[in-house]
From TrEMBL:
Domain of life: Bacteria
Leading EC class: transferase
Enzyme Commission identifier(s): 2.7.4.16
Record protein name field: Thiamine-monophosphate kinase
Binding of Mg(2+) 3, residues: 25, 65, 197
Residue positions binding Mg(2+) 4: 25, 35, 65
Catalytically driven reaction(s): thiamine phosphate + ATP = thiamine diphosphate + ADP
PANTHER family in UniProt: THIAMINE-MONOPHOSPHATE KINASE (PTHR30270)
Organism name: Sphingomonas qilianensis
Amino acid sequence: MTEAEFLAALRQLPLHPGAHSLTDDTATLGRYILTTDTLVEGVHYLAGDRPADVAWKLLAQNLSDLAAKGATPVGVLLNYPLRGADDWDAAFLAGLATALTHFSTPLLGGDTVSLPPHAPRVLTLTAIGADAPAPPRSGARAGDALYVTGTIGDAGAGLAIALGKDGPAELLAAYRRPQPRLAEGQALGPHVHAMMDISDGLLIDAERMAAASDLAVTIDLAAIPLSPAYAAFAGTDRAARLAAATAGDDYQLLFAAPAERALPVPATCVGHFTHGTALTLKHGVQPLPLPGKLGFQHAS
Ligand SMILES: Nc1ncnc2c1ncn2[C@@H]1O[C@H](COP(=O)(O)OP(=O)(O)O)[C@@H](O)[C@H]1O
Ligand SMILES: Cc1ncc(C[n+]2csc(CCOP(=O)(O)OP(=O)(O)O)c2C)c(N)n1
Ligand SMILES: [Mg+2]
């Protein structure tokens, strides 16, 4: 089963009204916003990555979902696997302490288990937030512009560098130490129609926002914001832009807002919503066929 097929089947199970039909980044329970995300060794991070970086990424990936709803973190639950590697565990704990302090997010609890020797680590965190304006993924309106914060593609390039390519530390850091856009999310939350974070790739996540909103979306590859480091590493041609738009791990915010509305934080308009269905891609004025893969999907 692919991730999309599994999610479609989950949507047939008994769902809480706060599950938002499993089409949003977070669930809602009273004044709280809930999300959980897992890191799998070899799938989300490399076995040789530093434990402190893994701890950072685990927290950051979850807080990014809270950021997408404009929420303030309240606390987290940690599910942790011991594997008889005391040094790794100690370094993970030290890194987690740094990350929790950095994001002013205390630990609420969790669970600790043991793994068979040599089994890949699977680390899960559940994050709870509050005070969220919570713009849904499904709130985009025809005529809205599609915006992203920051730059796209840096983490994907960082993964290529972690796997052996030559490239700058800045791109590697984007892969290993993603920065959840909590302040931007809180500022944008009350002003936007729809918002989500980009974890799987700009194209696939924009398509999900359009589908949830029952709209079509057109993205202009030429408008995708690339960092100077990415441009120096990969170039700025169509292939480099497509790679940036489909790599994932960006943890930037993707949101829909009226095209003429002034925004409280810097962001780049990369497309527009219209009546209809599906994602359409162009490069400037030139229409482009969709690539085979719009982003990262598990078991695809
Ligand atoms: N195994 C699962 N059980 C229940 N709900 C799930 C599961 N996997 C994903 N979901 C739900 O499906 C929706 C989409 O999930 P996902 O794409 O992973 O969101 P995100 O990328 O923001 O983490 C969310 O509402 C999430 O809670
Ligand atoms: C070693 C390694 N290979 C590939 C990737 C790319 N990758 C793995 S999972 C993923 C998407 C984000 O993970 P997911 O579990 O889908 O998070 P969610 O969308 O649920 O927040 C990406 C881009 C990576 N981060 N690390
Ligand atoms: Mg998820």
